[in-house]
Amino acid sequence: MSRLYTSFYLFLSLFLFLIPCLISAHLIEVPAGKKECFFEDLHVHDKMTVTYQVGGGGHLDIDFWLADPEGHVLSKQIRESTGSASVTAQKDGRHEYCFSNQMSAIADKMVSFNVHGVIYVSGDADVVAPVEREIRSLANGLASVKDEQEYMVVRERTHRNTAESTNSRVKWWSVLQALVVFAVVGGKFII
Questions:
Q1: Angle ∠(86,78,32) on CA atoms, nearest 5
Q2: pTM given for the model
Protein backbone atom coordinates (compact mmCIF):
# COMPACT_ATOMS: atom_id res chain seq x y z
CA MET A 1 0.00 0.00 0.00
CA SER A 2 2.86 2.36 0.80
CA ARG A 3 4.39 1.72 -2.61
CA LEU A 4 1.09 2.71 -4.26
CA TYR A 5 1.04 6.05 -2.42
CA THR A 6 4.69 6.68 -3.24
CA SER A 7 4.14 6.06 -6.94
CA PHE A 8 0.98 8.18 -6.86
CA TYR A 9 2.79 11.13 -5.26
CA LEU A 10 5.70 10.72 -7.66
CA PHE A 11 3.28 10.76 -10.61
CA LEU A 12 1.37 13.75 -9.19
CA SER A 13 4.58 15.70 -8.53
CA LEU A 14 5.86 15.00 -12.03
CA PHE A 15 2.49 15.98 -13.50
CA LEU A 16 2.32 19.26 -11.57
CA PHE A 17 5.92 20.03 -12.52
CA LEU A 18 5.23 19.51 -16.22
CA ILE A 19 1.93 21.47 -16.35
CA PRO A 20 3.63 24.90 -16.64
CA CYS A 21 5.76 23.55 -19.47
CA LEU A 22 2.72 22.29 -21.36
CA ILE A 23 0.50 25.34 -20.87
CA SER A 24 1.92 28.69 -21.86
CA ALA A 25 0.60 31.99 -23.08
CA HIS A 26 1.88 33.75 -26.14
CA LEU A 27 2.04 37.51 -26.66
CA ILE A 28 2.30 38.77 -30.22
CA GLU A 29 2.14 42.11 -31.96
CA VAL A 30 0.00 42.15 -35.10
CA PRO A 31 1.04 45.10 -37.30
CA ALA A 32 -1.60 47.31 -38.93
CA GLY A 33 -2.88 45.83 -42.18
CA LYS A 34 -1.30 42.40 -41.51
CA LYS A 35 -2.27 39.01 -40.16
CA GLU A 36 -0.39 36.45 -38.05
CA CYS A 37 -1.15 32.75 -38.50
CA PHE A 38 -0.18 29.72 -36.44
CA PHE A 39 -0.54 25.99 -37.02
CA GLU A 40 -1.25 22.93 -34.88
CA ASP A 41 -0.98 19.36 -36.16
CA LEU A 42 -4.01 17.43 -34.92
CA HIS A 43 -5.23 13.88 -35.36
CA VAL A 44 -8.84 12.76 -35.55
CA HIS A 45 -10.69 13.33 -32.23
CA ASP A 46 -7.96 15.59 -30.81
CA LYS A 47 -9.40 18.70 -29.16
CA MET A 48 -7.90 22.17 -29.31
CA THR A 49 -9.04 25.39 -27.68
CA VAL A 50 -7.64 28.82 -28.49
CA THR A 51 -8.41 31.71 -26.13
CA TYR A 52 -7.24 35.24 -26.85
CA GLN A 53 -7.45 38.83 -25.69
CA VAL A 54 -6.32 42.08 -27.27
CA GLY A 55 -4.20 43.97 -24.75
CA GLY A 56 -3.34 47.12 -26.62
CA GLY A 57 -3.73 49.09 -29.81
CA GLY A 58 -6.59 50.90 -31.48
CA HIS A 59 -10.06 49.90 -30.38
CA LEU A 60 -8.79 46.67 -28.78
CA ASP A 61 -10.41 44.50 -31.45
CA ILE A 62 -9.08 41.87 -33.84
CA ASP A 63 -10.39 39.35 -36.36
CA PHE A 64 -9.81 35.67 -35.56
CA TRP A 65 -10.52 32.46 -37.45
CA LEU A 66 -9.74 28.78 -37.11
CA ALA A 67 -9.59 26.53 -40.19
CA ASP A 68 -9.22 22.80 -40.84
CA PRO A 69 -6.50 21.28 -43.06
CA GLU A 70 -8.62 21.80 -46.18
CA GLY A 71 -9.10 25.50 -45.43
CA HIS A 72 -12.73 25.32 -44.29
CA VAL A 73 -13.34 27.90 -41.56
CA LEU A 74 -14.46 26.18 -38.35
CA SER A 75 -14.76 29.30 -36.19
CA LYS A 76 -14.65 32.99 -37.08
CA GLN A 77 -14.87 36.02 -34.81
CA ILE A 78 -14.84 39.53 -36.26
CA ARG A 79 -13.66 42.62 -34.34
CA GLU A 80 -13.70 41.01 -30.92
CA SER A 81 -11.49 42.09 -28.02
CA THR A 82 -11.58 38.68 -26.36
CA GLY A 83 -12.70 35.27 -27.48
CA SER A 84 -12.37 31.54 -27.42
CA ALA A 85 -12.72 28.86 -30.06
CA SER A 86 -12.75 25.10 -29.57
CA VAL A 87 -12.53 22.41 -32.18
CA THR A 88 -12.53 18.63 -32.23
CA ALA A 89 -10.53 17.50 -35.23
CA GLN A 90 -12.53 15.58 -37.81
CA LYS A 91 -9.48 15.10 -40.06
CA ASP A 92 -5.78 14.53 -39.55
CA GLY A 93 -3.64 17.47 -40.54
CA ARG A 94 -2.45 20.96 -39.88
CA HIS A 95 -5.14 23.21 -38.43
CA GLU A 96 -4.58 26.95 -38.85
CA TYR A 97 -5.65 29.82 -36.62
CA CYS A 98 -5.05 33.45 -37.54
CA PHE A 99 -5.26 36.88 -35.96
CA SER A 100 -5.92 39.59 -38.53
CA ASN A 101 -5.44 43.33 -38.16
CA GLN A 102 -6.15 44.04 -41.82
CA MET A 103 -9.09 46.31 -40.95
CA SER A 104 -6.70 48.78 -39.27
CA ALA A 105 -4.45 51.10 -41.26
CA ILE A 106 -2.70 52.74 -38.31
CA ALA A 107 -2.79 50.83 -35.01
CA ASP A 108 -0.73 47.74 -34.22
CA LYS A 109 -2.43 45.28 -31.84
CA MET A 110 -0.96 43.33 -28.93
CA VAL A 111 -2.65 39.94 -28.62
CA SER A 112 -2.22 37.47 -25.79
CA PHE A 113 -3.40 33.94 -26.55
CA ASN A 114 -3.33 30.41 -25.17
CA VAL A 115 -3.65 27.11 -26.96
CA HIS A 116 -4.90 24.14 -25.00
CA GLY A 117 -5.11 20.66 -26.39
CA VAL A 118 -6.46 17.29 -25.41
CA ILE A 119 -4.98 14.36 -27.25
CA TYR A 120 -7.59 11.71 -27.89
CA VAL A 121 -6.79 8.28 -26.51
CA SER A 122 -9.07 5.54 -27.72
CA GLY A 123 -10.57 3.15 -25.19
CA ASP A 124 -13.42 2.95 -22.75
CA ALA A 125 -13.94 5.74 -20.27
CA ASP A 126 -14.63 3.08 -17.61
CA VAL A 127 -11.07 1.81 -17.89
CA VAL A 128 -9.63 5.18 -16.81
CA ALA A 129 -8.62 5.04 -13.16
CA PRO A 130 -10.41 7.42 -10.78
CA VAL A 131 -7.08 9.00 -9.89
CA GLU A 132 -6.35 9.75 -13.55
CA ARG A 133 -9.85 11.19 -13.96
CA GLU A 134 -9.26 13.49 -10.98
CA ILE A 135 -5.88 14.55 -12.35
CA ARG A 136 -7.46 15.44 -15.68
CA SER A 137 -10.16 17.39 -13.87
CA LEU A 138 -7.53 19.27 -11.85
CA ALA A 139 -5.53 20.01 -15.01
CA ASN A 140 -8.62 21.46 -16.71
CA GLY A 141 -9.38 23.57 -13.64
CA LEU A 142 -5.79 24.77 -13.47
CA ALA A 143 -5.88 25.76 -17.14
CA SER A 144 -9.07 27.79 -16.67
CA VAL A 145 -7.62 29.54 -13.58
CA LYS A 146 -4.47 30.36 -15.55
CA ASP A 147 -6.57 31.80 -18.40
CA GLU A 148 -8.53 33.98 -15.97
CA GLN A 149 -5.33 35.18 -14.32
CA GLU A 150 -3.83 36.15 -17.68
CA TYR A 151 -7.08 37.92 -18.57
CA MET A 152 -6.85 39.90 -15.33
CA VAL A 153 -3.22 40.85 -16.01
CA VAL A 154 -4.12 42.21 -19.45
CA ARG A 155 -7.13 44.09 -18.05
CA GLU A 156 -5.01 45.55 -15.24
CA ARG A 157 -2.41 46.73 -17.77
CA THR A 158 -5.11 48.36 -19.90
CA HIS A 159 -6.72 50.11 -16.91
CA ARG A 160 -3.32 51.24 -15.58
CA ASN A 161 -2.50 52.80 -18.98
CA THR A 162 -5.87 54.58 -18.98
CA ALA A 163 -5.35 55.89 -15.43
CA GLU A 164 -1.82 57.11 -16.21
CA SER A 165 -3.05 58.85 -19.37
CA THR A 166 -5.88 60.54 -17.46
CA ASN A 167 -3.49 61.58 -14.68
CA SER A 168 -1.14 63.15 -17.23
CA ARG A 169 -3.97 65.04 -18.92
CA VAL A 170 -5.26 66.38 -15.58
CA LYS A 171 -1.73 67.51 -14.64
CA TRP A 172 -1.20 69.42 -17.89
CA TRP A 173 -4.70 70.93 -17.72
CA SER A 174 -3.93 72.18 -14.19
CA VAL A 175 -0.64 73.70 -15.37
CA LEU A 176 -2.49 75.42 -18.23
CA GLN A 177 -5.13 76.76 -15.84
CA ALA A 178 -2.43 78.11 -13.49
CA LEU A 179 -0.73 79.88 -16.41
CA VAL A 180 -4.04 81.42 -17.51
CA VAL A 181 -4.74 82.61 -13.93
CA PHE A 182 -1.26 84.17 -13.69
CA ALA A 183 -1.72 85.82 -17.10
CA VAL A 184 -5.09 87.29 -16.05
CA VAL A 185 -3.64 88.56 -12.74
CA GLY A 186 -0.61 90.00 -14.57
CA GLY A 187 -2.92 91.66 -17.08
CA LYS A 188 -4.95 93.27 -14.28
CA PHE A 189 -1.81 94.82 -12.79
CA ILE A 190 -0.63 96.19 -16.14
CA ILE A 191 -3.97 97.71 -17.06
A1: 115
A2: 0.58
